[in-house]
Specification:
It contains twelve helices and 14 strands. By secondary structure, it is of the alpha/beta class.
Amino acid sequence: MLKTMMRRAGQCAVVAAACLMMSAQAAEPIKIGSFLSVTGPASFLGDPELKTLEMYVEKINEEGGVLGRQLELIHYDDVGNASSARNFASRLIRSDRVDIIVGGSTTGATMAAVPLIEQAQVPFISLAGAVVITTPVKKWVFKTPQSDRMAAERILADMKDRGITKIGLISGTGGFGSSGRTQTLEVAEQMGMDVVADVTYSGSDTDMTAQLTNIRNTKGVEAVLNFGFGQGPAIVTRNYVQLGMKLPFYQSHGVASDSFLDLAGSSAEGLRLPASPLLVPDSLPQEDPQKEVVQNYKAEYEAHWDSKVSTFGAYAYDGLMLAVRAIEKAGSTDPEAVRGALENIQGYVGVTGEFNMSPDDHNGLDADSFRILEVQNGEWKLID
């Protein structure tokens, strides 16, 4: 009798220990890793991205977390340096043992980290724009911004609607500008349009008058497109006006923020670019499925940080919400289960657009998710 009681007590102890272990595991936070360009030349990307992640991780935790567990954000500032991004990605994977990574402000930082992430088999949602991030499809890599190819398609379609078929192209030589140039050249050829002038500038250039003069002196140019981000596009915009150029002028989505308007000043008047509706939420029709999402994000961000919202922070919002949705759908943080859930997300209405992922599409957006905006009286106005 005594032996039986002791045996049962031992069994109960084992069960109790197992329950305690399961409870402890369930109480462990879900680790969201991130490497972002919070400071440095790409801080206009990384700063609002980090602020967005911090704000919504806090909000989600206050509302009970995910799967009954709190979220823990572990982030590093790569200062826009690809080598640093790779090192931080390695630290997130090997030392911090994160469950998923939402980050990569720039294409260069993202692509530097991709081989490590693919090898480690950790789900990764990039916040950078170039088409090479998800084309060809990489099993563990996803992204939230529209690609530079989509931006080229949207811009050139708007030009064609205006009867423009001959383009002067100026682009940055960095990863984003270089990829955007390649995509623009390919899309223009497919659409039967001619890039009759093709010039570039480096990130250290402080005056692009010579490149723009080259375009101005090229016979047949009907409109000008600048593909780049950072300080360069604002310099190009000011030089464009200083040279008295009157042709229709376009920028890429790489400068879709109010901070660009501050940098370019009155020189930006009349230019067009593709962007998410975040810059013009009140202009959306009431039946637009994005209207409420966009308005809520804008209001919450600006109230929390007392600063203007940016489309780059919205990429982080969509990245985090897609991660949360995938973890909830998977019912765990098992990497393969989360990756599979991400790959099959359909109909998620985010700030950037409606995401419809698939095994063949790890971005889930199309060119129509871009809206064409024009600067009128110093403000963004919805054109299409």
